[in-house]
Amino acid sequence: MHSAQFTSGAGEPAVVVTRVSETRWHAVEDDRVVGHGDTSGRPDGRMFISVDAWHGAAFARLADAMLADLPRPLHTLVDEDDLDLAAHWERAGFTTRRREREYLLPTDPEVTGLGPVPPPEGVTIVAAGEVEEGPLRTLDRAIRDEVEATVGWQEMPAEVVPLPAGVTVLDPSKYVVAAQAGEYVGLLRLAPVVRQPRIGLVAVRSDRRRRGVARALLAHVLGSLHRQGVERASAEVNESNRAAMALFEGVGARCTSRNLELVLR
């Protein structure tokens, strides 16, 4: 890989930035690593970058080196309350693209009010581990095509697990689905993160929405977690997705943070 030397100012030690791999850069000052930058590709093609540095000068040198090496557009995520970090990225030329809300959802049916909620008439819930892979992939592709034809998949919550090109369902065992008339019509993906599972996606085919399918999926998953002794699950939602926010807030979800997705085009 290569190195680039930047001076922080007159009389100050030089900060040497080295690209140590395809996805990581190191900033070294006085033989100490004082920061690192990383990249990660998302399934929808977005490239996200992050920088963790001891001080502002190291951050700026890392950002300069990464931006010089990488193609545009580039994206990054920042807690809306982290004004210093947001300012660093704005000085590098990034602007706000969208906002996401981070939620914590209770699992207790007494709190969510989902205990007595049955699935809509004719709809059955297929539990995780019992979902058939072929119909699941067909549903996933249909939902993605519907989203792409409207707002675009890039408006969905940022997906954090890089997948091979063309692969959108990596592990069918993480999905719960709603079935009706012999086909799958809705899905919920649950990442079994230690101590606090994460709801990665809730989606229903456009011709089956507003019938309670998403609520039934949520009732099944949260109820199952509660029986396992799990008290809360997390989820993130684009603030433009009013329906999803209403769904989560309607079962007692609490917004714990707001994230900014910044972009440099």
From TrEMBL:
Its EC number is 2.3.1.-. InterPro entries: Acyl_CoA_acyltransferase (IPR016181), GNAT_dom (IPR000182). Keywords: Acyltransferase, Transferase. Residues 129-265 form the N-acetyltransferase domain. GO terms for molecular function: acyltransferase activity. This is GNAT family N-acetyltransferase. The lineage of its organism: Bacteria, Bacillati, Actinomycetota, Actinomycetes, Streptosporangiales.
